[in-house]
């Protein structure tokens, strides 16, 4: 009877699917063969409720929104710290050219707990990369001042002091009478020239100054990008360090739990109610947890040194995380608001617009090579002679004799390189093509900006759900391990069940810590990539003033004995083989 009923339900399901398919096919045919009058109301309704596709050609241009030469707004970002407060004054950056050459100079002498705000301050003050970016801005500013000098005339001075001395002998014959004359000259000649040159018309001057000004603005954008990336990297490394600390705590609790399990198994073996296999399983799990703890400690040390490298701390200081792991807050803006804010906020897009302007200016400067240049010059020259020339050998030089002459010349010059083989026009086209390339790069960067915001937003949403899911998993695994231990102590189950539940609890804690890390990372990435700071603080929880025990029974009081670091070639398994 049950078999017949099941077959009837199966047949009814097949018929229902067939009818559904026929209706769907008929609906599709009606849509395909429908008249245009039937489709018009649907499109009008779509436009009315905003679900219709937008004509991309009607979107506003970036040049219209930001301008052809966008300027940096320093008020849009919090300026970088320039000095350290008193508690952090001893953590100043190591001199740039310092290079330790003794082991005592690099030995770690202090583990310094730091909060997230202190880490950001140290990064802004000590970071060599941020200082290098600031130096590039100053270089661009100097280059702009050099370009602005083309508006002013140039004045060059030239002076020389020469000593001239010569002698000569001449013979003349007149009426069979030979006359010999011997002369020499000694005199000091002083020359002074002053030339004033001013280009009245120079076609290359304006585009070169415009290019230098846009380059300066671009470097300022680059500095702001470096500052925001530095803050993002500092927060990211701090969260990773917190995650490494959590990993060490998880590993320590797992080792303690394994020690409790091993103690229980050995006690039951001595009482004759357990087998050697259960003791071996407990020892195997203890070895696994010890290995995980070793890897967690190594990762913790690596994370600390990664943060120290970013902060450029003194050679003998290692930072540690002082803040506990907690949720930063709740992201308030929607996905669409975050995307639009990122388009208006990101300096990367402004830099590409400036690249377009720079390439256009360079194109005009290249074309100026075949355009006329008119310059005004004024040259002043003065010559002073002191001494005597043309005297006989019997007379001495009269140094009181001197002469002085001066001249001033004013000229108007005209230069026009009419033909240069097409070089100027070729460079003009090249720079115009570079400007077009920057437009394509702008489109690519625009799509990348949106994708980055969407990825962070989706990861934040997934991490939010993962925190809830994994927290439930931790509580369930903890209760399962408690029940498994009670069953094992009562002799109802084996050590294998305890080991499996203990492993599940460790994995659940690891997943929960990873979810917390991904949530905070996605939060700071959204803040960095959108420029928004609309983060609502989490509601405060009413917690007890006593710290709850993380593990079951008395496992928290179980000491973890340090194991010696023996060479790898002396492992027990190798000796046994």
From TrEMBL:
PROSITE patterns, A to Z: PROKAR_LIPOPROTEIN
Main location class: membrane
Presence of the UniProt keyword Magnesium in the record: no
InterPro entries documented for this protein: OMP_efflux, TolC-like
Keywords from the UniProt entry: Cell outer membrane, Membrane, Signal, Transmembrane, Transmembrane beta strand, Transport
Gene3D superfamilies per record: Outer membrane efflux proteins (OEP)
GO molecular function ontology, one term from the record: efflux transmembrane transporter activity
Family the entry assigns: Belongs to the outer membrane factor (OMF) (TC 1.B.17) family.
Descriptive protein name: Possible RND family outer membrane efflux protein
């Amino acid at each position: 009877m049950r078999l017949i009923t099941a077959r009837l339900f199966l047949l009814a399901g097949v018929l229902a699917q067939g009818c559904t398919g026929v209706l769907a096919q008929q609906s599709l045919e009606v849509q395909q063969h429908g008249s245009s009058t039937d489709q018009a109301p649907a499109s009008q309704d779509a436009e009315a409720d905003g679900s219709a596709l937008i004509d991309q050609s009607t979107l506003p241009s970036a040049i219209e929104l930001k301008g052809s030469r966008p300027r940096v707004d320093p008020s849009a970002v919090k300026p970088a710290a320039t000095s350290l407060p008193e508690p952090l004054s001893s953590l100043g950056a190591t001199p740039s050219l310092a290079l330790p050459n003794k082991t005592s100079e690099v030995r770690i002498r202090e583990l310094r707990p730091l909060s997230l705000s202190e880490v950001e301050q140290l990064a802004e003050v000590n970071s060599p990369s941020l200082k290098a970016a600031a130096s590039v801005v100053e270089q661009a500013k100097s280059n702009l001042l050099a370009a602005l000098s083309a508006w002013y005339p140039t004045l060059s001075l030239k002076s020389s002091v020469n000593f001239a001395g010569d002698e000569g002998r001449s013979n003349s014959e007149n009426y069979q009478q030979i006359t010999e004359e011997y002369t020499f000259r000694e005199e000091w000649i002083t020359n002074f020239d002053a030339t004033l040159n001013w280009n009245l018309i120079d076609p290359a001057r304006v585009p070169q100054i415009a290019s230098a000004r846009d380059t300066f603005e671009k470097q300022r954008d680059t500095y702001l990008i470096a500052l925001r990336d530095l803050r993002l990297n500092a927060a990211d490394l701090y969260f990773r360090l917190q995650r490494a600390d959590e990993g060490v705590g998880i590993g320590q609790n797992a080792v303690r739990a394994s020690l409790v399990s091993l103690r229980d198994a050995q006690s039951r073996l001595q009482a004759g109610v357990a087998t050697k296999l259960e003791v071996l399983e407990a020892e195997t799990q203890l070895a696994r947890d010890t290995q995980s703890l070793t890897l967690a400690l190594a990762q913790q040390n690596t994370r600390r040194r990664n943060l120290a490298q970013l902060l450029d701390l003194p050679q003998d200081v290692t930072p540690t995380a002082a803040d506990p792991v907690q949720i930063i807050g709740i992201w308030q803006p929607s996905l669409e608001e975050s995307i639009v804010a990122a388009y208006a906020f990101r300096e990367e897009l402004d830099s590409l617009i400036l690249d377009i302007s720079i390439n256009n200016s360079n194109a005009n400067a290249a074309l100026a090579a075949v355009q006329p240049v008119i310059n005004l010059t004024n040259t002043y020259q003065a010559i002073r002679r002191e001494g005597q020339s043309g005297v006989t050998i019997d007379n001495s030089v009269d140094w009181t004799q001197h002469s002085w002459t001066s001249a001033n010349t004013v000229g108007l010059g005209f230069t026009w390189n009419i033909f240069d083989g097409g070089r100027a026009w070729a460079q003009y086209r090249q720079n115009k093509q570079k400007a077009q390339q920057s437009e394509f790069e702008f489109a690519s960067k625009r799509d990348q900006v949106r994708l980055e915001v969407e990825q962070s937003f989706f990861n934040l949403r997934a991490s939010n759900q993962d925190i809830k899911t994994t927290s439930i998993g931790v509580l369930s695994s903890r209760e399962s391990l408690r029940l498994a231990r009670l069953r094992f102590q009562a002799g109802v189950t084996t050590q294998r069940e305890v080991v499996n539940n203990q492993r599940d609890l460790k994995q659940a804690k690891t997943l929960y810590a990873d979810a917390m890390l991904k949530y905070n990372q996605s939060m700071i990435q959204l803040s960095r990539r959108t420029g928004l700071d609309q983060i609502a603080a989490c509601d405060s929880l009413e917690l007890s003033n006593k710290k709850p025990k993380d593990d079951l029974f008395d496992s928290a009081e179980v000491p973890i004995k340090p194991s010696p670091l023996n060479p790898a070639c002396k492992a027990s398994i190798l000796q046994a083989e």
